[in-house]
Amino acid sequence: MGGSAGSLRRLSDSEGELISQESEEPRPPQDRRGAHWKNVVGFWILGLCNNFSYVVMLSAAHDILSHQKESGNQSHVGPGPHNKSSRFDCNPVSTAAVLLADILPTLVIKLLAPFGLHLLPYSPRVLCSGFCAAGSFILIAFSRSVPVSLCGVVLASISSGLGEVTFLALTAFYPRAVISWWSSGTGGAGLLGALSYLGLTQAGLSPQHTLLSMLGIPVLLLASYFFLLTSPEPQDPGGEEEAERAARQPLISGEDPEAPERKPDSSSGLSLHEKWTVFKGLQYYILPLILVYFAEYFINQGLFELLFFRNTSLNHAQQYRWYQMLYQAGVFASRSSLRCFHIRFTWTLALLQCFNLVFLLLHVWLNFLPSIYLVFLIILYEGLLGGAAYVNTFHNVALETSDEHREFAMTTTCISDTLGISLSGLTALPLHDLLCHLP
């Protein structure tokens, strides 16, 4: 019941009050170890559940845009009107439209979050995230038109965006180890979300029933937050704080890495000058992450649909689902690799991802790759780069930011991936129209 009691207190807590409820008497080592494992597993599950609906919407993007449900035949998705004069077998609308519906609300949330979201307690935010995720599955499952389906995608975007800002800010009150577990969970969401949608539809289940079968995920998110997480511990029971403090290279010049650190009270206690100073120090990590996500989502939602091979046993929709699943498999593997590989120079990952974009764009234009299996390998590699950029960026920010600045820094860095994805969606739409009008 320790996890339940600790989390239920957050129903009325704001960020600044989160630590003040902590008992002054330290827990025995055995209890602390148990609480540590509850927290890291809790953050892994939260990462999994938070990103699940977002991933499923991208995996279903081709179906959402291509299906036309008829009033007596709602069990299966049939082909919609494609551009048959084009060698790409294009949908009338690019799958980047689903990407934009799945990311623009998240962008708005993340842009506004550093300025006022801290005034809303954590628990209402988590409840809102869970209800929006459930609503997205229900709305799309029973939708009969593309516009209504896109409204469901918007709900999924609100859920994942609000959840990511909330839970990454929450990590500031826990040992830094929870960041790698959260990141691994988000990678697991990509793999499980894409694989479950692919597997269930391949097995013959309709997209409608596939989406309805996923309603247990928002319930698991709420249960993990309210009944699994414990109240934050003031120290890392794994004993990693000393090693991390020794390796810290502060983002803000003049900050002493050896100075004793204190837990954050609230980002609302920072002045505008402090926030601006922290933001400037974050640019070394924010800019590469924007570039990584621009390149990979330009590939995912701008080129996946155009990477169509006619000489395989997979139809167009199946090829698209396999691309999404392999990408998410790469993301899961690399987001779970922080214990094995720590990359400080994330600019390298950004440059490699941009090379992937140029290479696949040339193939779409010139059609020189002989086999879909070569594309499978490139997409898996693309996911490895994207996942590594995400987990190492947030780990570096947590490591190199002082405790009183960490909550604001984590919330602000969240903007990076969303901004890169939004820019890629806006760029992919006109590219889709251009290429699909080619003979």
Automatic annotation (TrEMBL):
Highest taxon in the source lineage: Eukaryota
TM annotation in the entry: 41-61, 122-142, 149-173, 179-198, 210-228, 282-299, 345-366, 372-391
Gene Ontology CC: early endosome; late endosome; lysosomal membrane; membrane raft; neuron projection; trans-Golgi network
Cell location: Late endosome; Lysosome membrane
Annotated region described as Disordered, given as residue ranges: 1-33, 234-269
Keyword set includes Membrane: yes
GO biological process, one term: regulation of proteolysis
Keyword entries, A-Z: Endosome, Glycoprotein, Lipoprotein, Lysosome, Membrane, Methylation, Phosphoprotein, Prenylation, Transmembrane, Transmembrane helix, Transport
Pfam families, alphabetized: CLN3
Keyword flag Membrane: yes
Annotated family: Belongs to the battenin family.
Name under which the protein is recorded: Battenin
Organism of origin: Pipistrellus kuhlii (Kuhl's pipistrelle)
Lineage start: Eukaryota, Metazoa, Chordata, Craniata, Vertebrata
